[in-house]
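Researcher: For the annotation table, I need structure tokens for N-acetyltransferase. Please keep the output clean. Sequence:
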Amino acid sequence: MKVVPWDQVAQIPHVEEDILKSVTDEQTVRFTHVPDPYTEDHLREFLAAPPTGVRRYAIVLDERYAGNVELRSMSDEVANLGYTTAPWARGRGIMTQAVRIVTQGAHEEGVHRVELRAAVHNHASRRVAQRAGFTFEGISRHAELLRGTYNDVALYSHLATDSN
């Protein structure tokens, strides 16, 4: 498993096909803000450079796109981390590894607090947070509006002073 900067994503074989399979997957649509339906324009926009304040990384496993991790700056010291795992790559522990790598890199660059939010019923994502060494802080009620429904989210954090 490798975590590579987003500017290298085009070098991954069949990346467009694998991303399309990932973003149209039922679980991805259920728990993320990917557009539904997902168009070629959405794909082009996603493959382009991330927006200002967002660092995006591709996860590569067996020379295939296996997902992505995004780190969104909230301030100089705080960032929010989000991720999506390709359906074929789930259940292998790779997202836990990728989250650890990106979180450690953020701390090394001076980010003191990395936050991670997951829908309370997204048990797989919550397991990733726990296994990656994040601390559960509580439930934020109706903290996310997704596809017309307010959802409660579990808040996790990892501080630069935490062990991995």
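Researcher: And a one-line annotation?
Model: The chain has a mean pLDDT of 94.
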